[in-house]
Write a structure and sequence with these properties.
Number of strands: 2
Number of helices: 10
Order of helices and strands: HHHHEHHHHHHE
Strand order of the largest sheet: 1-2
Strand content: under 5%
Oligomer: single chain
Helix content: 55-70%
Number of domains: 2
Structural class: mainly alpha
Shape: globular
Distance between the termini: 62 Å
Length: 276
C-alpha cells in the first residue's frame, strides 16, 4: 500500500503540494520540498515587498498573517494550517515560511545582547514545554519555536563543534529519508514474521533500524545533497570568487530596491548592544 504507482509521478516532479494527487506513500515528506520550491521562487518578491518595513512591523505582520491563514484554513478547508493535507502544502508552508523570513530579517537588523537573547530563548523553551501540559496549543507552540530559533541565532557560539554542525546539517536529510528507511526496514521485518518474535529481539531490531536511519541520512547528505549543493553554488567550488559579507548585504539591499539601498538600512534598531 506504500508504493502506489499512481502517487509516484507527482512526488518525482515535486508538484504534490499544489493540488496534484500524489502525496501518499513512497517518500511522503518530500511534500516539504515541493512547497519550499514555491516559497523560494517567491522569495525575491517577498524580500522586495517586505524589506522596506521596520523589523518589528515585519514580525508583527507575519505573525498576524499566520493567525489569519490558520483561521481561514479552519473555516474553508476544515483543518488548521499546520494540519492541512499534503495537496495544500504550499498554503500550509508559505505563511510559516514568511514568519521564518521575518524572524531572520529581525535577527539581521536588530542587535540584542547575547545574555538577553539567551534569557528570551530559555523562557520560550520552558513556556513551550509547560504549555503542552495544558492542551494542544499548536499555533502558540509554533510561535515559541520561532522565538527559540531566533534566540539561538542571536547567541554567539563559544565552542564550535564540528559534530553538532554536521548533525544539524544532516537533520533535514534525516527528515527526507526516514520514511523510506522505516518502510524498507520494518516492511522487511514484517515479511519475515516479526510478530512472532520476542519483545527483546524486536527492540534490538528497532535499535538497528534507528542506526540504519542515521546511516541512510548520512549517505543522502554526503553522497547526494552536499555534492549537488556544491555543484549548484559557485561560491563553494575551489577557485571561485567569494562575495564578502558587505558585498552580500549590499546586493540584498539593491535587490530590495534602489530607494532602500540609497536610504541605507531603514528600520534598523539596536536593543541593549553588547559592550566591549
Amino acid at each position: 500500500r506504500w508504493f502506489d504507482w499512481s502517487q509516484l509521478p507527482a512526488q518525482v516532479l515535486l508538484v504534490q503540494a499544489y493540488g496534484v494527487p500524489g502525496g501518499q506513500g513512497w517518500n511522503a515528506p518530500t511534500w516539504t520540498l515541493s512547497a519550499l520550491i514555491g516559497c523560494y521562487l517567491l522569495l525575491p518578491w517577498i524580500c522586495r515587498a517586505l524589506w522596506r518595513w521596520p523589523p518589528v512591523a515585519m514580525v508583527i505582520g507575519a505573525t498576524l498573517l499566520v493567525v489569519a491563514a490558520d483561521i481561514a484554513a479552519s473555516l474553508w478547508l476544515g483543518d488548521p494550517i499546520y494540519r492541512l493535507p499534503m495537496r495544500y502544502g504550499i498554503l500550509r508552508a508559505l505563511p510559516l515560511f514568511l514568519l521564518g523570513v521575518a524572524a531572520a530579517f529581525y535577527g539581521s537588523r536588530v542587535c540584542v545582547a547575547p545574555h538577553r537573547a539567551r534569557a528570551i530563548g530559555l523562557a520560550a523553551a520552558f513556556a513551550l514545554v509547560g504549555l503542552q501540559a495544558f492542551g494542544a496549543f499548536s499555533l502558540v507552540s509554533l510561535g515559541l519555536m520561532t522565538v527559540i530559533i531566533w534566540a539561538a541565532g542571536a547567541v554567539p557560539v563559544r565552542s564550535p563543534s564540528r559534530l553538532i554542525e554536521h548533525l544539524a546539517l544532516m537533520s533535514f536529510s534525516m527528515f527526507l529519508t526516514n520514511e523510506v528507511s522505516r518502510i524498507v526496514w520494518f516492511g522487511l521485518l514484517d515479511a519475515l514474521g516479526q510478530e512472532a518474535w520476542s519483545s527483546g529481539v524486536r527492540w534490538v531490531l528497532w535499535a538497528i533500524g534507528l542506526v540504519g536511519a542515521f546511516v541512510a541520512a548520512a549517505v543522502f547528505r554526503y553522497g547526494f545533497d552536499r555534492p549537488v549543493q556544491t555543484w549548484l553554488s559557485p561560491s563553494r567550488r575551489g577557485g571561485a570568487t567569494r562575495m564578502s559579507a558587505a558585498a552580500t548585504e549590499r546586493a540584498m539591499e539593491l535587490a530590495a530596491g534602489p530607494g532602500v539601498a540609497a536610504a541605507g538600512r531603514p528600520g534598523q534598531a539596536v536593543i541593549d548592544p553588547p559592550r566591549a
